[in-house]
Design goal:
Oligomer: single chain
Structural class: alpha+beta
CATH class of the largest domain: Alpha Beta
Distance between the termini: 66 Å
CATH topology of the largest domain: Beta-Lactamase
Helix content: 40-55%
Mean pLDDT: 82
Low-confidence stretches: 1-20
Strand content: 15-25%
Largest sheet: 7 strands, antiparallel
Shape: flat
Length: 657
C-alpha cells in the first residue's frame, strides 16, 4: 500500500475548528493523548514481534550450529578412521606377510599423513605373532617434534585386557573407546580395528590396529562457533561424560548423570537420556554455565556416537529486544513532544499563504521527505491542510524506516540460507576434470538447486586404481530438511562404498541405517555403480531412482531399468539386487534426477524422455562436459520464464580406451 494512502485526517485529531481557546486546548490535549496511545500500541507490537522473530531465529540457529558442529567433528574423525580402516584392510589383504621394520615404516607413514594422529599400534595375539618379530605390540607415536617408538608389551602392560584390544577382539568389529586422560595430561580417544587372517576354518583374528587421537582441537573448534557472548558448546561421549565443556572442572571429570545426581536435578538427567538416545533434538533450557534462559540443541556424531550440543542464550536476546524497545520509546517520546509543540503552534498560528504550501508540496511529491514545509498559521482550511502534509511526511519517513528494518532482517535470513547453500555445495565435488591424471575415463556433473538448499546430490570417488564409484540421489522434500537428510545419506553412502563394493549390499546397509529413528519417514531415491576401468564391467543397484541411460558407441541409447528397488529410508530390511553391464571403450552412462525430464515450461509441458534422447543422440561426439552443458541449455530454454520446481542434477561418465 502506498504510504500516502494510509493517511487519514481523522487520525491526526483534526476536527471542526473551535471558536474558543478552551476548546482549542482540549483538542490539543486530545490529539497528543491519542498519539501517545498509538505510540504505546506500536511499541508493544514491535516488542512482541521482535521477540517472536528472534526466538525463532535462535531456535533455527541453535539447531543448525549443533548439526554443523557434529558434521565438522565427523569430517575430521572420519578421515582418521578411514586411515586406520585402510591399514587394517591392507594388512588383512597381504595376510600380514611383512616384517617388523615394514610395519614400523607403515606406522611412520600414517603419522606423517595425518597431523591429528598422536600414535598408532599393531598389537598381535601372542599365539599369532611371527617368530621373526621382536615385538608383540609395536607402537609409534609423536614425542614433541619427533617420532618415537617402543613395544607396549615391554612396558609390563597386559594389553590383552585393555579396552582398545579387548573390545574389537570380542565384538569382531572396529571400536571407538571412551575418551580418557593420557599420562601426558592430554585428552585422548583410541580407534581400534581388528585384523583378520584367512584360514580353512574361516577368518582368524591376528591382532588389532589402533590410532590414538588428541582431542584438544575440539575445544578450539567449539569455541569458534558463532554462539553469541553468553552461548557455549559442549561435547558428550556415548556414556554421557563431558569431553568438552566451558567449565574446566567438568570436562573429562563429570558426566551428565553425575551432575544431575549432585544437583538433584531430574530434568538434567532426562535431557542427558535424550541426548544419548541418538536422536537430534532441541528444548528450552537454563544454561549450565551461565544460569540464563537459553535454547539447547544437540546432534549425534556418526563416527563415534558422541553428542555435540550448543546453548544459545535467550536472556541475551531478551536484553537486546528490551534495548531496541527502549530506543524506540525514547524516539517515540521525543516525537510525541515535538508533536505536542507542533499542534500547539498550529492551534495558535495564523493561516499561511497558500502559495508557500504549493511551493513546498512538489518537493514532497518528488520524494524529498526532508523538504521544508511552511509552518501552519491560523485555523482555517489551509492551516489544516498544512498540518496534514506535516503528518504525512513524518508517517512516510517512519514507514520507510520500518521497511528498511524489515528488509535488513530478511537479508539476514537470506544470508544464512546462502551460507547453508555454500556448505551443501561444498559436500559435492565440483572440480572438473575430476581426475586429470587419468586418460581412461571422462567424468563431469552438474547440479542446479531449485531453492537456496535442496535434496539432490551426486558423488564419485576412486576406490582404487581400477575402480571408480558413481552415485546420484534425490531426497524427498525441499529446503533445509532435505539438505540435512542429503548430507547424512551422502556421508553414509561414502562410508559403505569403502567397506563393500557390492552396490546392492551398500544400499541395504544404507537403508537400514537411514530407517533408524526416521520418524519423518523421509526417503531418498538413489542409483550407485562401481565401474572397473580395465574391462568395463559395471555393477550397479537402484533404489527407486530414474533409470540411467547407456550411450553405446554404436549410436544406440538404452535405459538401464532393471533391477530396481524401493526408495531407501522409510523402513528397514529392504533387499536390493545388483545388476551388471559391460561398457565398451567409448560407451557412456548418464545419471540424472527427475528435475531433468520433468522440467516444465510456462504451459506445464514436461521436457520429457523424448527430448532427452534427442539431445543425447545429437551429442554422441561431444565430451561429458559439453554434453551436460548442451543438455542444461536445452532444459533452460524449454522452461523459459517458468519457475524451477525441482533440483536439476546430472552426472555423465564415459569409459575411454
Amino acid at each position: 500500500m502506498n504510504p500516502a494512502e494510509r493517511m487519514n485526517p481523522a487520525d491526526l485529531g483534526i476536527g471542526p475548528v473551535p471558536a474558543k481557546a478552551r476548546l482549542r486546548n482540549r483538542l490539543l490535549v486530545s490529539t497528543v493523548g491519542i498519539a501517545g496511545l498509538i505510540l504505546c500500541g506500536l511499541l508493544l507490537w514491535n516488542y512482541l514481534s521482535f521477540r517472536e522473530h528472534l526466538t525463532e531465529e535462535a531456535q533455527v540457529r541453535a539447531r543448525f550450529l549443533a548439526d554443523g558442529a557434529a558434521d565438522r567433528i565427523d569430517a575430521t574423525l572420519s578421515g582418521l578412521q578411514s586411515l586406520v580402516d585402510g591399514m587394517a584392510l591392507s594388512l588383512s589383504a597381504t595376510s600380514l606377510d611383512l616384517t617388523l621394520e615394514q610395519m614400523r615404516t607403515l606406522q611412520r607413514e600414517a603419522l606423517h599423513q595425518q597431523p591429528g594422529l598422536y600414535g598408532t599400534t599393531f598389537a598381535w595375539l601372542p599365539e599369532r605373532k611371527p617368530p621373526d618379530w621382536g615385538a608383540l605390540a609395536p607402537f609409534s607415536y609423536r614425542d614433541g617434534d619427533r617420532l618415537a617408538y617402543h613395544d607396549l608389551a615391554h612396558d609390563g602392560l597386559d594389553y590383552l585386557d585393555e579396552d582398545w584390544f579387548a573390545l574389537p577382539r570380542f565384538l569382531g568389529r572396529a571400536v571407538w573407546t571412551e575418551p580418557y586422560i593420557h599420562y601426558t595430561g592430554k585428552r585422548m580417544v583410541t580407534y581400534s580395528v581388528p585384523v583378520w587372517l584367512a584360514s580353512p576354518d574361516g577368518p582368524l583374528l591376528a591382532g588389532v590396529v589402533t590410532s590414538d587421537i588428541e582431542l584438544d582441537w575440539l575445544d578450539r573448534l567449539l569455541a569458534d562457533l558463532p554462539l553469541g557472548e553468553q552461548g557455549y558448546a559442549l561435547l558428550i561421549s556415548r556414556n554421557g561424560v563431558y569431553i568438552s565443556h566451558p567449565t574446566d572442572t567438568i570436562a573429562m571429570r563429570e558426566s551428565v548423570f553425575s551432575l544431575a545426581e549432585a544437583r538433584g536435578d531430574p530434568g538434567l538427567r532426562q535431557v542427558g537420556q535424550s541426548m544419548l538416545s541418538g536422536d537430534p533434538g532441541m528444548r528450552p533450557w537454563i544454561g549450565w554455565a551461565t544460569g540464563e534462559k537459553s535454547w539447547l540443541a544437540w546432534g549425534r556424531l556418526s563416527t563415534t556416537g558422541w553428542t555435540s550440543a550448543v546453548v544459545i542464550s535467550q536472556t541475551q536476546l531478551d536484553r537486546e529486544i528490551a534495548r531496541l524497545t527502549q530506543l524506540q520509546a525514547l524516539a517515540g517520546g521525543g516525537g510525541l513532544i515535538l508533536l505536542f509543540l507542533a499542534v500547539g503552534w498550529i492551534a495558535r498560528s495564523i493561516t499561511r499563504p497558500i502559495t508557500a504550501l504549493s511551493e513546498a508540496a512538489p518537493g514532497i511529491a518528488a520524494g524529498n521527505l526532508d523538504a521544508p514545509l511552511p509552518a501552519p498559521k491560523g485555523q482555517d482550511e489551509i492551516a489544516r491542510l498544512t498540518t496534514i502534509f506535516h503528518a504525512m511526511r513524518d508517517r512516510l519517513k517512519q514507514y520507510i524506516a520500518d521497511l528498511e528494518e524489515t528488509t535488513a532482517a530478511r537479508e539476514r535470513i537470506n544470508g544464512e540460507l546462502r551460507i547453508a547453500s555454500d556448505i551443501q555445495m561444498d559436500l559435492v565435488p565440483k572440480t572438473f576434470p575430476a581426475f586429470p591424471e587419468r586418460n581412461d575415463m571422462d567424468l563431469c556433473a552438474i547440479i542446479q538447486p531449485a531453492r537456496e538448499v535442496g535434496g539432490d546430490f551426486y558423488d564419485f570417488m576412486l576406490l582404487d586404481e581400477e575402480h571408480v564409484f558413481l552415485a546420484i540421489a534425490d531426497v524427498s522434500g525441499k529446503g533445509v530438511p532435505a539438505a540435512l537428510f542429503m548430507a547424512v545419506a551422502r556421508s553414509l553412502l561414502r562410508a559403505e562404498a569403502k567397506i563393500d563394493r557390492n552396490p546392492g549390499r551398500m544400499l541395504e546397509r544404507l537403508n537400514d541405517t537411514l530407517a533408524e529413528h526416521n520418524d519423518a519417514c523421509m526417503f531418498v531415491t538413489l542409483f550407485c555403480a562401481v565401474v572397473c576401468l580395465s574391462d568395463g564391467t559395471v555393477t550397479y543397484a537402484n533404489a527407486g531412482h530414474n533409470p540411467p541411460l547407456w550411450l553405446r558407441t554404436t549410436g544406440s541409447i538404452e535405459w538401464i531399468d532393471s533391477p530396481t528397488g524401493i526408495a531407501a529410508g522409510p523402513m528397514a530390511g529392504l533387499q536390493y539386487d545388483t545388476g551388471h553391464i559391460q561398457l565398451a571403450a567409448g560407451d557412456g552412462l548418464l545419471l540424472y534426477t527427475d528435475g531433468v525430464n520433468e522440467a516444465t515450461d510456462p504451459d506445464n509441458q514436461l521436457f520429457g524422455n523424448e527430448r532427452l534422447l534427442e539431445r543425447l543422440h545429437a551429442s554422441q561426439s561431444l565430451s561429458c562436459r559439453e554434453t551436460l552443458d548442451a543438455l542444461l541449455a536445452d532444459i533452460l530454454a524449454h522452461t523459459g520464464e517458468a519457475e524451477q520446481f525441482d533440483d536439476i542434477t546430472m552426472m555423465m561418465f564415459r569409459r575411454l580406451s
